[in-house]
Structures are given as structure tokens and as C-alpha cells.
């Protein structure tokens, strides 16, 4: 057996280290290093290739160029056997065949989408506000009916007199304290039979009710003139004009309102026979009425005329004029005559104080609810929507019986501006209920015969919540514009909604200038039922 022999070990008795130089390692290369470099192991055969990339980067650098560096290479001939079980085919499912036409359409659509992304249209999450603004402007272009008044060369936009709808929607403030100053007029009692009306038992709309409905603006109201003279209020306005201003951000069509400032007091008026006197239909819808012929029954002009006439007829048909509730003073617009042929409308003059602003508002009450026991009188405000254009996919006669909530939600979407203005007017009048009527045509192509399909009741606060209306924002919008007008000298100012862009402008106009007539109501002068 061969024994193990230990080599010669030199012994240096005078110090540490070899006694004489050795020539055994001559010619063998070595790796130089500095004191700043990190020393690792000479050899580590237990290390695997699954170490983190951070540790590999830490040892990379100059060491990768050393003579003894080793780079692991994958063997191209090595193959791993797949031991997973193959997926079982799903029997019974149809095989989808790719249509070449659809494929080409998808390719073109993808190209258009890429082009839109490059132009800034963007995919999900990119330029979202730009896309929304483009959609809003496109809707306005489809629903553009022209300016309500012609802007002339001598009209000037006052300082800070232009506001975007995005700025208006962010306004917020506290609601003013309210006090009722005066109540006058008389109203009829609601007929409870209309609470049970549905599509099957629809009531024909009676159009032969001959009753006078007064449409008097603030400057011509003798009661408001008296409150301005005795200093009770410095801002005088009617509820319909005030509601139009408070709901500015929901409007699509162009309109205008006149601010007349005299002796530090502001009368907020509307011009006679303007488009604010007519109710719109599907103003906020994606496809508003846009028939080219203004005399067609489904044109925007004729539909506005039809909606206004049916709403007025419905509000007078659902009340019993023989059972009246009369307030302390008579109708202020009836001069020495009988009130038998006057519509069931009473007026409440209410004072809203907010800082230095004393706003006197003339609001309307349309009826009184039947008494329940010994409770106090409960008053209501009438609102209504007319189905002028029948949608075959969403007809009231198909949806009202089983999906009444869906019908109301659809109307809230398409007529957001109109319903919000009604909610504001009900809040200003401090009524107990909002009576909401749904009126439809008997035949889609007959705009003279209508039926009351349903009558709903809501509390004003609940009605405002359903349309996402905040009175704090509504009052902030109005007070901001009034304070802007108060900062100007006495004169005449016109607040106008732009025809296409979501913004408003307040112009300073000469006092003696003729504002002209609204081009829209020229087509809707006569009543729809008299044709």
C-alpha cells in the first residue's frame, strides 16, 4: 500500500514567511486587486444559478474580465419533458368562424382608434376631459337652434363676465334665510282620482279649459315694484327666471336674461315672448329634436309649443276649480274683474336675505291637496313631461306599468334642465308636494290629442335628490352673478348662454337699445290645439 508523503516544508527560524524565494509558481497568471475591491470566495461549488439579480450585479464589473471568470451557457440540446395533462376539449360549444368582412372592419377600426389616440383622443384614461368636452360640443352642434338675441357691436363683456360651466358647477355657498312676505290669489283642490291613473286607464287631456295664465316679468309686477320702493328688497326676480339662472350648467339651448339696475336695485327680467316661456323636450338627450322643417310636428319648435300647451292644460285639469283655497289678497294681475276664468295659480312673495343682498322672489303655487283629518293645508307645485317623440325601444305605454322608475330615470337624463328648474321653483315656493304628470300622444303622428298616462307625487327635497340638485350651488350661482352686476354702474346688462360652447357671458348694453325678438317663438305663436 502506497503511503502518503508530506512535502518539504521550509522552516524560517528567524522570522515569518519563507526563508528563500520559491520558483515553483513562476509563469502562473494571477488576478491583481486593490484594497477597495471586495474579496469573495476562491471557489464555491455549492452556488446555484438562481441567485437574485441584485447579487449578480454586485459581483459584476471588473471581475467578469478576470482570466478565471466563468460564464454559464445553456445547452441547446437539452430539452425538458412536459408532464402537464393536456386540456380536455369542451364538447357542445360552437366553433367560432371568423368573418373576413368583420376582420377587415376591426382592422380599420383599430387603425382609426390608433389615429384618434395620436390626435389626443386617447384610450381609456387619456384626455378624458377633452373627450367629454368634445362630446358636449358635438351635442350642442346637433341641438344648435341659434342665438336667442343678436350680439351687437356696441355690446361689451363686463369684467369677469364670462364663466365656464365647469367653474359654475364648482360654486358653493350657504342657503339664505327665507321669510314669506305676502300670499295672494286662489288655487283649486287636487282631484284624487288622478292618483290612480295608469296606462290602461289613461285620462284624455281636455284642451277646452279657457283660463287665463299671467306671464308678468319682475319689472312689471306692481307688488315687486312696491317692495323695491320701500327698501324691502334690492334684488327683485320671478321664480321661473331665477330657476333658469340657478340651472345654467344643465342648459344646452341658448337663452338670455336682462338685468336692469336702477338706483342700486336690480330687476332680473326676461324679454316678452322669448324661448324661456316655452318648455323644451329632450334638450339634454344625445339625440335632441332636430327636424329640418320647423313646421313639422316633430321639429324642435313645434315640440316646444306642444309641451308648453299640454303642461298648462294638465296643470288645470287635475284640480277642482269649484273647491278653491283663497289667500288673503286677490290676484295682483286682475284689475277690477272676476277671477272665475283665472288659472289655478297663487303667488307667494318671499324674502331671501344673504349678507347685503335682499332678494324678493315671486313664486307660484298651483293647488292644494285634499285635507287629511285636522292637518293644515298642504300645497303642491305642478310639473309634467310630454312624450312627443315616441321611442319604439322605450315607449311609455310599454314601460310605465312595470318599470315606472326606469321611465322617470330616462326623463331625468333627457330633460335634466327642465326638471331641475321645476325642482328649484318648488323649493322657492316652499310647497309640500310636487305633482308630476306624464302626458303622451294618443297616436305618434297626432300632436293634437293627448292622454294623461300617470300622475306621481314627490316631496320637493326627494325630487331634488333624484336629479342631483344642490340648492347650495344654485344659490351660489345666482348670488355670484348678482354681486357681479351690483359692482357695475346703473344700466342694462344681458346674461346670455352661448349657442355652442358651455359658457355664459354678461354684456353691458345701452339702456335705450332695442333687444329685438327671439327668432324661435315666431314659429310657435299660436296654440297647438287651435290649428
Alpha plus pi helix count:
12
Structural class: alpha+beta
- Overall pLDDT: 79
Enumerate the spans where pLDDT stays under 50 for 5 or more consecutive residues. 50-68, 92-125, 522-531
Q: What distance separates the N and C termini?
A: 133 Å
Helix content: 25-40%
What is this structure's SSE topology?
Layout: H1 53-59, H2 100-119, H3 128-142, E1 156-164, H4 165-169, E2 177-190, E3 203-204, H5 222-229, E4 235-238, H6 239-246, E5 256-262, E6 265-269, H7 300-317, E7 319-326, E8 345-354, E9 357-365, E10 367-368, E11 379-387, H8 396-399, H9 404-414, H10 416-429, E12 433-441, E13 450-458, H11 460-466, H12 471-486, E14 491-497, E15 503-509
Parallel strand pairs: 4-6, 4-9, 11-12
Antiparallel strand pairs: 1-15, 2-7, 2-8, 3-13, 5-6, 5-14, 8-9, 10-11, 12-13, 14-15
Helix pairs in contact: 6-10, 6-12, 10-11
